[in-house]
Amino acid sequence: MMVQVRFFAALRERAGRDAIQIDLPEGVSTVAQLVDWLAETDVALAQALEATPRRMVAINEVLGNEDSVVEAGDVVALFPPVTGG
Amino acid sequence: MMVQVRFFAALRERAGRDAIQIDLPEGVSTVAQLVDWLAETDVALAQALEATPRRMVAINEVLGNEDSVVEAGDVVALFPPVTGG
Amino acid sequence: MKTHIEVREGGLSASEPDLWLRDQGRSGAVVMFSGQVRDEQGKVEALHLEHYPGMTESVLGTIVEQACSRWHLNGAWVAHRVGTIQAGEDIVQVAVSSAHRQAAFEACAFIMDLLKTRAPFWKKELIDGCWIWVEARESDDQAAASWLQDATGRAPR
Amino acid sequence: MKTHIEVREGGLSASEPDLWLRDQGRSGAVVMFSGQVRDEQGKVEALHLEHYPGMTESVLGTIVEQACSRWHLNGAWVAHRVGTIQAGEDIVQVAVSSAHRQAAFEACAFIMDLLKTRAPFWKKELIDGCWIWVEARESDDQAAASWLQDATGRAPR
């Protein structure tokens, strides 16, 4: 299934990309599984994720967590802990 | 001993006076005794004090209480609970 | 630490304490409280504020000093109006600056709670053409006492 | 109840929320928080703020809704800057109006605490000519969690 993954802040800079479109294989259905799959299939992303061990996630612009379910067409955003205000 | 007694707000209006100079007899040495003495010696003040049963007191511009000691030359202010802000 | 304590007849505006507290990056947080004349569903046309000149400034100064001894503040501004004030206008402003927001929130609330119960101001309301003295509120006493409980559980004067 | 939620590149001034919240005597209390860029003893020259357009406004809206469900508010204003901001300038303003001051203080602190931990903003600091990402602070997580403990003692998402 197709999903969009977006990166922000330090993770965006480390990934060298704002966003990617990916076709997830069967069996990848949670945020944790998505992150593992990204790290397995893309060395640059693996390094960016490893360099950003504290992360937050939003699915379709709503905060989620590692166990949140990812569905076709979702926009999954990965980013470091927020630091506004 | 001579002291000045000042009145504020509703108590001032009820007393019909801003301030009085009084010569306290011996034995009147606390705020409570001063208030009792005022009520005994001045009918108008007795009525004003009775109509203002919740009161605060300041001696020389510092908040005190019924047991505070009054000394010659003091300025004793009597007023209803404050309502600023 | 700078402090500004003022009793005035004229109007208050939020930009005054905001500008006065600015310190080129020393503070990270400013909390400002503005107290305004409520009309109580159109019932109250105006307020009249009386105070005890001299004592007012001295009490406000003491309250601000107490706040400074409890929290790390860079600045504190207290301005209170007296005289006649229309519904919707500001009666009082308390604004404090600090490195961090929690100190600023707490110190600002503390100053207001103590001001409400200790500073010698009295207000009357204009209702149906008559001036009526406002009664002190029990809840204000409780708010002030909650900051001031000493080890014995007694609220000190 | 009126709300204003805004992300902007330009500067903030205290008079804007002050004027916008005025309601001719309905509210008795306005509490305003301004967050400013600290220079950390001259170390930090500027900040750069990045955000997630769309999600930011939606998260801020949700936080304000939560505040409205907990306290009786008449108005809430949240404005946050993005882009480059110099030391001493305002980053964020949160201002709320209510009949009484306790609700206004609490709601304003609540909105700030949640904004700090949930709204998708990220800042980097310009130090010695280099931009360095700011790390999130543990104390901010704790401040937000303290509002959100449910009956089971778990902080809900």
From TrEMBL, chains C, D:
Database matches in InterPro entries? MoaE_sf (IPR036563), Mopterin_biosynth_MoaE (IPR003448)
Query: Which ranges does the record mark as transmembrane?
Result: none
Signal sequence extent: none
Pfam families, per this entry? MoaE (PF02391)
One GO biological process term: Mo-molybdopterin cofactor biosynthetic process
The answer to whether keyword Phosphoprotein applies is no
Listed SUPFAM superfamilies: Molybdopterin synthase subunit MoaE (SSF54690)
Q: Which UniProt keywords apply?
A: Molybdenum cofactor biosynthesis
Which EC number(s) does the record attach to this protein?
Answer: 2.8.1.12
The top EC class, named as a word, is: transferase
Subunit structure as annotated in this protein's UniProt entry? Heterotetramer of 2 MoaD subunits and 2 MoaE subunits. Also stable as homodimer. The enzyme changes between these two forms during catalysis.
Family as reported in the entry's similarity comment: Belongs to the MoaE family.
Q: What is this protein called?
A: Molybdopterin synthase catalytic subunit
Q: Which organism is it from?
A: Alcanivorax profundi
